Amino acid sequence: MKISYKSKVLFFILIGITAISGCVTTANKAFDTQESQVQTRSIQTRAFDTTDKKKLLQAVISTMQDLEFVIDNADLVIGSVTGSKFSRGTIVMTVTVRPRGEKQLLVRANVRRNLQPVTDPLTYQDFFTALEKSMFLTAQQVD
Amino acid sequence: MYRTLKIAFVAFLCVGVVGCATSSGPRPRKSFLMLKDDYLQRRQLQTRQYDTKDATKIVMAVAGVLQDLGFTLDESESDLGLIVGSRDADATDKGQVAAAVTTDIIIAILGGTSNATSQVDAVQHVKASVIAKPSLDGNKMLVRVTFQRIVWNASNQISRVETINDPQIYQKFFESLSKAVFLEAQQI
User: Is A10 inside a domain boundary?
Assistant: First the structure.
């Protein structure tokens, strides 16, 4: 049986395609973001007129608990709190607190729902409204 | 004929009015980061206060109680009074199993195939997260615990994820904690 020239070419093309596609990894997907970074940051961040990091973190924790989150971990030095909640899917939220200048603290929240990052500004606003209530302080928009 | 027309006209008007009613007025927005109306009740259920200023004593007692209840400690941050623990437990419910077996048998008798027994709850992973913090005036310690569970069915699929809201479970936890710190738990 003689293999035709055409099928030989086809065979090599197929091998080539397999080899090339084998090289592509999905690792870069781990860093995919949809929105521009500046926009995301301003949606997720508010400033509070206080320098008491511990008290602010405790307020974040109790606000998250009021919102039915279970706190998974927290760190005072790094200023982070992570919690999860089950409400039509799994919701995971991380909140970080860090100083801004001498008189303010910045609070940034990151929310994921079913592996998808939440980008809706109103959802983040809801969280900061709840946080304001327990802090008796106003959350200020940061540019 | 005239009557039928009149009824039809009234019905038409009703539809019109109903149509207006639903479209007018803003619908309340639902969001998973909004406080629900019953959040204060839930806070009350999950929180007790103890007449002490000693945060370390409370946190250590919490760790001990979780271990007494069969939990292993996953995470802790003593500066914020946080302790997280978890345990795996059986989740089989006799009633549910009986119902599933009956379903399978009946369907088999009727000549079909059913696998309801593979869908019954089998194992659960319970997570407890406890926060101890000073009260506003600083004279007492507030302890708040939240329980969450993930349930797997007999074919190893997640069948349920939920926050536990059974008052008895919280009651039991705080009773054990009271014994551990020799202090009475007070409702907030």
Answer: no
- Asked if B146 lies within 8 A of A70 by C-beta distance, the reply is yes
- Domain residues for the domain of A80 are 35-141
Nearest to B77 by CA among A2, A93, A85, A71: A71
Q: Is the dihedral of CA A128, B30, B130, A89 positive or negative?
A: negative
Tens-place pLDDT, residues B132-151: 999 888 889 999 999 999 99
Question: Of chain B residues 87-126, which have a CB less than 8 A from chain A?
Answer: none
Looking only at the bridges linking them, the beta strands covering A80-86 and A70-75 are antiparallel
Q: Do B35 and A68 touch (CB under 8 A)?
A: no
Which residues on adjacent β-strands are paired with residue A12? none
pLDDT at A71: 94
Any domain includes B173: yes
The CATH number covering residue A69 comes to: 3.30.310.80
B14 inside domain? no
Q: What is the pLDDT of residue A129?
A: 92
Beta carbon pairs, A and B, within 8 Å: 86
Q: Is residue A64 part of a domain?
A: yes
Q: Number of folded domains in chain B?
A: 1
- Distance (Å, whole) CA A130 – CA B33: 8
Q: Kindly state whether residue A106 falls inside one of the protein's structural domains.
A: yes
Question: Do B129 and A133 count as a contact with CB atoms less than 8 A apart?
Answer: no
Query: Residue B130: which CATH number?
Result: 3.30.310.80
How far off is chain A from B33, nearest CA to CA, in Å? 5
Confidence (pTM): 0.76
Taking the Cβ of residue B32 and every Cβ of chain A, the question of whether any pair is shorter than 8 Å is answered with: yes
pLDDT digits (tens, 9 = 90+) for B67-77: 999 999 999 99
Residue B83 structural domain: 38-91+122-181
Helical (H) or strand (E) element with B174 = helix B167-181
Maximum mean pLDDT: which of A10-24, B50-64, B105-119? B50-64
